[in-house]
Amino acid sequence: MQPSRDISRLLEIMAALRNPDGGCPWDLDQDFMSIRNYTIEEAYEVADAIERGNFDDLREELGDLLLQPVFHAQMAAEDGRFDFGDVVQSITEKLIRRHPHVFGEQAARDAGGAKARWDDVKEDERAQKAAKRDAAPSVLDDVPMVLPALARAEKLTKRAAKVGFDWPDVAAVLAKVTEELAELQAARTDKERHEEMGDLLFAITNLARHLNVDPEAALRDANAKFTRRFHYVEDRAKQDGIEMKDAGLERLDGYWNEIRAADKVGG
């Protein structure tokens, strides 16, 4: 078996790995549920390579991500459900259907018009799916449950806003954030704090949307900033010959303020 640029070779390799006669024990032991987390993880690693601007890593991570639909399709084929060709058929049908301004008679003058066409087709698709399960269509249909909570909250509020269920401006959302913070401060039980914290985070996510800020990306950047600054605090304590746990909050906070001040000068 030799490497190849042809997708058929990847399909052959995956089939060989899943072959009960001489295949890989680990690959044979997997199922849809056990693989799903790897699929999510690989998508994040692709995003990480993009954010770092490392195209060598991006090439590799895209390969790892490509393996996931191949793996799922192989397992589905073994069950007689569908195969990789069906997956390709499905996405090509969808792309053609959602781009009537490219593959049909409708015209779109700009990116905004193209997006409107896409949204119209998606709305029709949601209605068809709802009809199949004998349920009323909802604008919140097909917002994946497995999305990170912040990303899902942002998508839910964006969908609701499309039908007018939204705060009129940033000031109104800020007032809602203040209200939710007060309710969290007033909470007395663990259950109440859990609920009010969720409401506060949801309101903050909505605020981010109104400010055109990606909440998931903003929190990732905040995590990275905290990590970098905390490493500085660790290094400073080491330079002073002090164990972190013995340094005391006042000294550690002083180190922290050093790097904060340096960031402001550098920024």
SSE blueprint and pairings:
Layout: H1 7-17, H2 25-28, H3 32-52, H4 55-78, H5 84-98, H6 100-103, H7 111-132, H8 149-162, H9 170-186, H10 190-210, H11 215-239, H12 244-247, H13 249-266
Helix pairs in contact: 1-4, 3-4, 8-10, 9-10, 11-13
Describe this structure in words.
The protein has helices at 7-17, 25-28, 32-52, 55-78, 84-98, 100-103, 111-132, 149-162, 170-186, 190-210, 215-239, 244-247, 249-266. It is globular. The protein folds into four domains: 7-98, Helix Hairpins (Orthogonal Bundle); 102-132; 149-213, Orthogonal Bundle (Helix Hairpins), CATH 1.10.287.1080; 217-266. Helices cover 75% and strands 0% of the residues. Helix 3 (32-52) packs antiparallel against helix 4, helix 8 packs across helix 10 and helix 9 (170-186) runs antiparallel to helix 10 (190-210). The model has no long low-confidence stretch (mean pLDDT 90). With 267 residues, the protein is an all-alpha fold. It has 13 helices and no strands.
